[in-house]
Amino acid sequence: MKKLLLIVSALVLTVSVGAQTKEVVLKNLDKAKATVENPKKATAPASWLKLAEAYVDAYNQPQIGLWVGAQSMEVKLLLKGQQVLSTETRTVNGNEYTVEVYADKELYYTPQGVLDVIKVTAPLVEEPLESAYESLMKAYEVDVKASKKEDIAMQLSKLRDLYINDAMTAYTLGDIQTANKYFESSLKVLDNPVTEKIDSMIVYYTAVTFNMLGDKENAAKYLEKCMEIKYYQDGDVFSNLAEVYKAQGDLDKAKAVLNEGFIAYPTSQGILVSLINIYLESNDDPNKVLELIRTAQANEPNNASLHYAEGNVYKNMKDMENAIKCYYKSFEIDPTYVYGIYTVGSTYYDRAIEIQEEINNLDVNDYETYDKLLAEFEQALIDAIDPFEKAFAVTTDKEFQLAIADGLKQIYFRFRDKDPKYQEGFDKYNAFLEENDK
After folding, report:
1. Which pTM value belongs to this model?
2. Would you place residue 280 in the very low, low, confident or very high pLDDT band (cuts 50, 70, 90)?
3. N or C: which end of the chain has fewer CB within 10 A?
4. Rg of the chain taking only CA atoms, in angstroms
5. If you average pLDDT over residues 363-373, what whole number do you get?
6. Do the Cβ atoms of 378 and 410 come closer than 8 Å?
7. For the chain, what is the HEC assignment?
8. What residues does 115 pair with on adjacent strands?
9. Maximum Cα–Cα distance for the chain, whole Å?
10. Distances (CA, A) of 194 to 47, 143, 356
């Protein structure tokens, strides 16, 4: 499942444990409801603010005092007196959790005993956040002098955080339908006459979750909203919207948005790949992409990444010769641009893997073709050595070095009996990998 890179502060429910029992919370809620049912008091914005607070208290009550990141022992002390009905092991999206089930909630712990997810299963009242929102908007409606506008806006902002907390909880647990519901609901909490704000990131996540649900119409609606407010998520909005248009059968609109995206993000691999695919699918000319790249190169002649991007286009077109020339060019322009020289090596290495597959599928008696392919296979591996060596020397990223060292080790092992230099190369990178295998 696609990960949402949303950073939300851990929502610590600051109400002290035991400060309000369920009975007290419900009593206060009934009192607040009775207040707004009084015609005279219903015209006071404070009455509706009080009702909104009562609904938020009802929302908070099942998880009072809990916070993500708490140790299991801390939680047990906090919930002293609440019975754990069962303890289960569940795997969610590849993550293993120990789940403690209570009458009104489920608590998900990591293998280290850290509380990672709080899921309320039996809310004190139905849709408390929606009711709180409606109460706040009613407070705004009756606040003819705007004396409480700041208080209303503050409460709406807090409500937005609670909606997003629920959305991320649902997303973590793989419940995309619920995550989508709360993402979309959170938007109106800020996009209204009180706060007059648009939460651009949540507009995008609403689109993403609609797309995951297969609702292309609403996915397009929110992605188009992202375009309108100029929130592009590093170019992903363009490629995602193009995919939605393609799914709707509108290739022309898909091409148009990708071309617009390419101008704004000329090095976005997602946009480049989408452009190439759509040109190929529509029997159009992928050279149009190259024209765009060269326009961008003319504007930024010393931008190594643009030559790298050109190489990716050629590589997708299976033109390895020109792809490698472009990758070399990117490294020539900027000797610190390690991806350029590394991709020369990985292109040769990938080609060797392809040839190996061809060899494996050969007729066992086709010796002539076997000898020809074997020679090409070994040459491709040898051609990968020098660019890999240069990339290893340039990069300071340890993980990247380990990946390159692993590739070089395998290549040198292949030829270790042919020349002492290959044995030396194998020994060097084998030792490097062993030293860093910690």
Report:
1. 0.68
2. low
3. C
4. 29
5. 89
6. no
7. CCCCCCCCCCCCCCCCCCCCCHHHHHHHHHHHHHHHHCCCHHHCHHHHHHHHHHHHHHHHHHHCCCCCCCEHHHHHHHCCCCCCCEEEEEEECCEEEEEEECCCEEEEECCCCEEEEEEECCCCCCCHHHHHHHHHHHHHHHCCCCCCHHHHHHHHHHHHHHHHHHHHHHHHCCCHHHHHHHHHHHHHHHCCCCCCCCCHHHHHHHHHHHHHCCCHHHHHHHHHHHHHCCCCHHHHHHHHHHHHHHHCCCHHHHHHHHHHHHHHCCCCHHHHHHHHHHHHHCCCCCHHHHHHHHHHHHHCCCCHHHHHHHHHHHHHCCCHHHHHHHHHHHHHHCCCCHHHHHHHHHHHHHHHHHHHHHHHCCCCCCHHHHHHHHHHHHHHHHHHHHHHHHHHHHCCCHHHHHHHHHHHHHHHHHCCCCCHHHHHHHHHHHHHHHHCCC
8. 109
9. 98
10. 17, 11, 65
Strand order in the sheet with 95-101: 86-92, 95-101, 105-109, 115-120
pLDDT digits (tens, 9 = 90+) for 99-135: 999 999 999 999 999 999 999 999 999 999 999 999 9
**Tokens in use for 21?**
């029992």
Identity of residue 274: S
